Prior knowledge:
Blueprint: H1 45-57, H2 61-74, H3 80-98, H4 101-115, H5 128-144
Amino acid sequence: MNETRRDRDAEGRARNARPRDGLGRPLPYGTPGVERQPEGVVRTPAETLREAQRLLDAGMPFHAHEVFEDAWKSGPEDERELWRGLAQLAVGLTHSARGNTEGGARLLRRGAGALAPFAASGPHGIAVAGLSGWARELAVRVESGPPVDAAAEAPRLLG
Length: 159
């Protein structure tokens, strides 16, 4: 793709076609990158959690965030904050692994806050209390330390 023009998808919408690494950082055109998650995929909650956990375990929280984003956009209204909170945790881990400690900590705390209303019910077997605790603890660590290893810090989604 010519870098002076905007990348477009088949429908003519602006889409960045640059390859990306496992943390979602853009790479130079022509460089092999990590395959992107397809957008707009409607999955069951179990499929969403399974795919997101696979990506988190592989050290690709940016890509897990995209899976959660699909769930928040396509799921029932009463679960949107749940999926959005999980997406924020994944993005917080992404920023923390990239070295953006302030942004990472902020998103981890925001995601933990978004999950709070779901702690009692633990929908779909999600370990809401455990994830919230993990996020808050990681936020403290990333504020005072070096970037974290995304795969080593991958949370367990199910309780």
